[in-house]
Specification:
The complex is a heterodimer of chains A (84) and B (158).
Chain A lengths: L1 E5 L1 H7 L3 E4 L8 H9 L3 H6 L7 E4 L2 E3 L10 E5 L6
Parallel strand pairs in A: 1-5
Antiparallel strand pairs in A: 1-2, 3-4, 3-5
Chain B lengths: L1 E5 L5 H9 L7 E8 L3 E2 L2 E2 L2 E6 L3 H16 L2 E9 L1 E3 L4 E9 L2 H18 L2 E7 L2 E4 L4 H19 L1
Parallel strand pairs in B: 1-6
Antiparallel strand pairs in B: 2-8, 3-4, 5-7, 5-9, 6-8, 9-10
Helix pairs in contact in B: 2-3, 3-4
Classes of the chains: A alpha+beta (84), B alpha+beta (158).
């Protein structure tokens, strides 16, 4: 299992703050996970579509498309940050 | 070096005094305070709500402060960032840096703010007359952070 979490506009667009997800076979990277979620269609396909500005963190560290994902990880998807 | 994320307001004077207290090596303190404005992108802002990613936020801020420490000869640094719902005139963020001479304190303070704006997981939502609106990230913030990377590259090459 991995722990998926969503923040800000992305959380609102997806209608959920997160979920526990059985890591699907063949999904080993951030890019693979994002593509898997897009395949759910509906709000998922829109909010996480390629080209949408989405940032990802794995275990509280900023990640990129190639960052590996393994069971037990916490993976966060969120919009570009706007603090300060 | 310390970072704090809190809902309560902060007393910038007391925080800065504590930062340099009892350290006679401090010759300079530079600080920045971010404040809520009552207008953004042409619309009135009644309140500003800040959301963050508990756990990652503190880690990201600590990493930014550590990077500043690696780049400049600074003596201490403090970041206090508020979350929750704020109103115009409210303080949002305090960054304060102490060093022996002003150059390091000024540079490290600006660096910490620029990196905070692009790397620390905070998000702002404004209450406007048209309803709630998420604040979009600005390209100018990315550009501000990137010039520090360019600077490091230039110095590395020199």
């Amino acid at each position: 299992m991995i722990n998926l979490v969503f923040f800000a506009r992305l959380r609102e667009d997806l209608g959920t703050a997160g979920e526990a997800l059985e890591l699907p076979a063949g999904v080993t990277t951030v890019a693979g996970l994002r593509a898997h979620l897009v395949q759910r269609g509906g709000a998922w396909a829109g909010a996480l579509a390629p080209g949408r500005a989405v940032r990802v963190a794995v275990n509280h560290d900023m990640a990129d498309a190639a960052t590996p994902i393994k069971p037990g990880d916490e993976v966060a998807f969120f919009p570009p940050v706007t603090g300060g | 070096m310390a970072v704090r994320v809190q809902t309560e307001d902060f007393d910038a004077g007391a925080e800065i005094a504590a930062l340099r207290r009892a350290n006679p090596k401090v010759g300079a303190v530079a600080s920045f305070i971010g404040v809520v404005r009552d207008v953004n992108d042409g619309d009135a802002v009644a309140t500003l709500t800040l959301e963050h990613y508990p756990g990652m936020t503190e880690k990201a801020l600590e990493a930014i402060v550590a990077e500043a420490q690696g780049r400049w000869d600074i003596l201490d640094a403090l970041v206090v960032h508020r979350v929750g719902t704020l109103a115009p005139l409210d303080q949002i963020v305090l960054v304060a840096v102490s060093s022996a001479h002003r150059g390091e304190a000024f540079a490290a303070c600006e660096f910490i703010m620029d990196y905070l704006k692009t790397r620390a997981p905070f998000w702002k939502q404004e209450a406007t007359p048209q309803g709630p609106r998420w604040v979009d990230a600005r390209d100018s913030d990315d550009a501000a952070a990137e010039r520090w990377a360019a600077e490091a590259k230039r110095q590395g090459a020199a």
